[in-house]
Amino acid sequence: MNDKVDFYQISLKLILKNSTGEILGLKVKSNSISAFYDLPWGRISTDEFEVSFLKY
Fold it and tell me: What is the value of pTM for the model shown?
C-alpha cells in the first residue's frame, strides 16, 4: 500500500459587498508600472484538512 499523501491546492475567493453596493477589491503590488485588483482569497493548509467547518 502507498502511504504517500497527495498535495492539493484548495483555495477560495470571496466577494464582499456592503449595503451601498460597493465591492471590496484588494490592490495587488506589482513590479511593473501597473498594478491590478483582486478579490480577497485564502488557501487551506495541509494541517487544516481534518478541521470541521461546523466548528466555526
Answer: 0.50
Residue pair 39/26 in contact by the 8 Å Cβ criterion:
yes
What is the Cα–Cα distance from 7 to 48, expressed in whole angstroms? 13
Residue bearing cell 499523501: 5
Separation between Cα atoms, residue 1 and residue 52, nearest integer Å: 27
**Do the Cβ atoms of 27 and 34 come closer than 8 Å?**
no
The answer to whether the beta carbons of residues 12 and 46 sit under 8 Å apart is no
Q: Is the pLDDT of residue 29 over 70?
A: yes
Determine contact, residues 40/26, Cβ cutoff 8 Å: yes
